[in-house]
Specification:
Blueprint (H helix, E strand, L loop, with lengths): L7 H6 L5 E3 L8 H9 L3 E5 L5 H12 L7 E5 L5 H9 L4 E5 L7 H6 L3 E6 L2 H10 L3 E5 L5 E2 L6 H10 L6 E4 L5 H9 L4 E4 L1 H4 L8 H9 L5 E4 L11 E4 L2 H8 L14 E4 L5 E3 L11 E2 L21 H8 L4
Parallel strand pairs: 1-2, 1-9, 2-3, 3-4, 4-5, 5-6, 6-8, 8-9
Antiparallel strand pairs: 7-11, 10-11, 12-13, 12-14
């Protein structure tokens, strides 16, 4: 790698650097995605919860800030055909699907000559995605922040996927934070590295400032994989920073929905005046107010290495330094 940033990922997808920004809901908005694209990486715009109209507006917002390619993030377990068609009509051709088999979305992706970048958490899912026509795989280890379906450690999963020689670029994800992490996963056979938490604290991120500060001030070991914040997404495991809501729930024996301490208490308010309750899946974004600390602050195991808010371009420059 010395002297060049070319990998199978950069050459096959046309990016300048082997860096991918995760599609983090509540953090990765158009400004961040465009900034990553302009810095040579792959930005991923989450649109899966949106209406087609909202998704179109978000995509167009991004396109006003970059002429480079970016991907949209969708859920495999939901019917997302209308969103795929909306993105395709706007010129998007890269589709990142996560959370289960992408089979139901493949006809719509193929119809627009799109390319599937499938997030997988185990070898069986990787094989299925490739058989369905995936153009790249994101091998997400259990160390990752946010929603994590798999239970395999990143390096173990990466070794399994690389050994299969699927013939598509492999993007490593889960607990990555530094340039040495990039070098490490590339040395194990990955073609690119995906960062989520590192970009949550990017200057262009729409994550709430208190959320960013929580990441920066948290020590290593401050996260937990749990189902605590599963309001609106039942029983979906995720990795978050341990906080007061998790602590009270954990001390109560981790009761199920309907039996949780403080359940239903409004903790965050949106700019339009609506609110959402404790244990809700949403993460705090700019403009929200209330008990930010008590909400779901998604973060991966590498957060102890993250120490400041920086522009996305500066983050990418640091991550590829020395490659």
């Amino acid at each position: 790698m010395e002297g060049t940033l070319e990998t199978r990922f950069t050459s096959e997808f046309g990016f300048d650097v082997p860096i991918v920004q995760g599609g983090m809901g509540g953090a990765a908005g158009p400004d961040l995605v465009a900034a990553v694209a302009n810095a040579g990486g792959l930005g991923i715009l989450p649109i899966w919860p949106d209406t087609p109209e909202a998704a179109k507006a978000s995509i167009e917002h991004t396109q006003k800030r970059t002429t480079k390619a970016f991907a949209v993030n969708l859920r495999s377990d939901l019917e997302q055909t209308a969103l795929i068609e909306t993105a395709a009509n706007a010129g998007v051709r890269l589709f990142n699907l996560f959370w289960g088999s992408p089979a139901k979305s493949m006809p719509a992706i193929e119809a627009c000559d799109g390319r599937l970048i499938a997030t997988i958490g185990d070898l069986a899912s990787a094989k299925e995605a490739v058989d369905l026509g995936a153009a790249a795989l994101i091998a997400q280890g259990v160390e990752a922040g946010g929603h994590v379906l798999g239970e395999t450690l990143r390096d173990e999963l990466l070794a399994q996927v690389v050994s299969e020689s699927f013939g598509v670029p492999i993007i490593a994800a889960g607990g990555l934070a530094t340039a040495s992490d990039v070098s490490h996963v590339l040395s194990l056979g990955a073609d690119a590295a995906l960062f989520g938490t590192r970009f949550v604290v990017a200057q262009e991120s729409i994550a709430h400032p208190e959320y960013k500060n929580a990441i920066i001030s948290a020590p290593s070991g401050a996260t937990v994989r749990t189902t605590c914040f599963d309001g609106f997404w039942p029983n979906a495991p995720h990795r978050v920073i341990r906080n007061s809501t998790f602590q009270v729930w954990d001390e109560a024996g981790q009761p199920s929905e309907g039996h949780r301490p403080g359940e239903g208490d409004p903790i965050l308010t949106f700019p339009n005046g609506s609110s959402f309750p404790r244990y809700f899946v949403a993460t705090p974004s700019i403009g929200m107010s209330g008990d930010i600390e008590a909400s779901a602050m998604y973060a991966g195991e590498g957060l102890g290495e993250i120490q400041q808010v920086q522009p996305a371009a500066e983050i990418i420059a640091e991550l590829v330094e020395g490659l």
